[in-house]
Amino acid sequence: MAKYKVPKLAKPARVKKKQVLLVSSGDLRDSANEVCWANQEQMEGDLAQAVGEAGYELVRAHPYKRDVKHGFISSQKEGMSVFAGIDPTAKLIVAETVWQYSHHVLAGLIDHQGPILTLANWSGTWPGLVGMLNLNASLTKAGAKYSTLWSESFGDPAFVKKLRRWLDKGSVKHPTKHVIPWKKVKVPAAEQRLGKALAEQLRHEKAIMGIFDEGCMGMYNAIIPDELLNPAGVYKERLSQSALCYETSLVSDQEAQAVRRWMEDRGMTFVTGPNESRDLTDGQILTQCKMYIAAMRIADDFGCDLIGIQYQQGLKDMLPASDLVEGMLNNGDRPPVKSRDGKRVLRNGEPLVHFNEVDECAGLDGLMTYRVHKAMGQPVENTLHDVRWGDWDQSGTVDDYVWVFLISGSAPPAHFIDGWKGASSERQPDMYFRLGGGTLKGISKPGEIVWSRVFIENNRLKMDLGRAGVVELPPEETQRRWDLTTSQWPIMHAVTYGVSRDQFMARHKANHIQVAYANSAKEADRALLAKAAMAEAMGMQVALCGTRKNGKAW
Fold it and tell me: Measuring CA to CA, which residue among 154, 135, 147 is closest to residue 44?
């Protein structure tokens, strides 16, 4: 009889009956984790008290790491090691106050047999809410069961009630009566015809989605499998960011300087300084302008209808941040770029749809928005934003709850108050970007928008859509919100129609939200319906969230 060295698996110690395990996923960069750790430590203390008052004990499943000055799981390998050593049947809380890379913990959470609760503090200081929403969407795509909670203080009665239910029962649900299935919506014939025709055109003529290295910052939820994307008529062109880096090096200083002059001639402000490690410098801006030209030319080489640059990992050690590039690409009125032979202006007067952070769900959404809005004579510029945070207006200007939609670097100037004149560029925080690079910052103008999100659930593409208004707040209130989040990034003050804060959080399956302006409330309603009809004709499961501006149901 043959003898083999059969591995013996270590059996993790079982937790006690009233013990609950806690894990915290963090950034890949220890520089960011160290800066953000104090907020996480405070939140974990507040949460431990709430869990204790409910009759349970919160036990951290991994230690504080003195050498790097934080206690976050900061790699996939570390996450796998942590989960290999914990009780797979234990109640488990994933507590987040920061942006986190979902793949650090996804492998362990998918296999975990006990109840899972994702939880975030309701704060804009660091992107904890953004990180939790990303993890929720990733778990949804993976088919893993979980519950989710959020709180400002971890002591408010509503949170305590839901927390105790999860601790006692292993699950907690939130009402989502604001969600209306597409089959219950009455759609005018004109919008129905347009949506179906655009879907058929896309399937017949097909579009190319250029992807500069797939998968960014652990966003498993942001990758659409080819077998789901291709039937809609969209195919991926997988490009390397090394090619973008090389192409950037081929662009002349003169061409790049012309791009900067174009922006400055239209009123753009660059907030520069002499210190490379802290300030935005002229050299960083020059390289970003070269990258813009390079991205346009590569997209032209491959016939891309849209492109996505990975933004952080992959480029951060080679080039300044790509934010300025991304904002320019998504704007119709942007610096002209000639083809390699100098005979053509590439996409003259039109944006090149760019999906930030290579979020392919946002890319598909952005392509659809561009085509629907162009066909309807509506503004074609659209972008994603992080669902960063929200608060009541402290100035008393509006009575509504106002969301802080805050993209992590750039938005198209067409969305800003005063356009290019209202735009500025500031250095990205050095804890994220060692080589710097400027953002494309501004305050979104008041108006009517359509918001949407493509996501994956039960191995199917789905789309939620809703209506919102962008409100203008006094400078002091805007600055308060910037100071509580990231002041270098563009901001949108949004009021979602018929969707409360908690309803939105209970339903939304992404860290991102796609937004596009329309010329009026009625035209925004029509654009939403046409886009929803297009999505349905493309095979997506569609739902409308909330109401029209006037409060009427769909």
Answer: 154
Q: Per-residue pLDDT tens for 46-69? A: 999 999 999 999 999 999 999 999
C-alpha span between 431 and 34 (Å, rounded): 9
Mean pLDDT of 138-159: 97
- At 144, the amino acid letter reads A
User: Which has the closest alpha carbon to 508: 174, 123, 77, 127?
Assistant: 174
Helix 521-537 × helix 360-376 angle, to 10°:
120
Question: 311: left (phi > 0), else alpha (psi -120 to 50), else beta?
Answer: left
CA distances from 455 to 339, 458, 530 (A): 35, 10, 19
Task: Give the H/E segment covering residue 166.
Answer: helix 157-169
| CB-based contacts of 77, cutoff 8 Å, min separation 6 | none
What does the longest C-alpha to C-alpha distance in the chain come to? 83
Q: Tell which phi-psi region holds residue 437, choosing left (phi > 0), alpha (psi between -120 and 50) or beta.
A: left
Domain ranges for the chain, please list them.
19-169, 184-545
Residue with tokens 């004990």: 57
* Contacts of 281 by beta carbon, 8 Å cutoff, 6+ apart: 272, 273, 274, 275, 436
Please give the full DSSP string across 305-363, using - where no structure is assigned. SEEEE--STTTTTTSS-SHHHHHHHT-SS----B-TTSS-BTTTTS--EE-GGG-HHHH
- The CATH number for 19-169, chosen from 2.40.30.90, 3.90.180.10, 3.40.50.10940, 1.20.1260.10, is 3.40.50.10940
Q: Would you say domain 184-545 falls under CATH 3.20.14.10?
A: yes
Burial 122-132 (b: 16+ CB within 10 A, else e): bbbbbbbbbbb
Over the stretch 410-429, which tens digit does the pLDDT of each residue have? 999 999 999 999 999 999 99
Q: Which residues contact 376 (CB under 8 A, 6 or more apart)?
A: 194, 523, 526, 527, 530
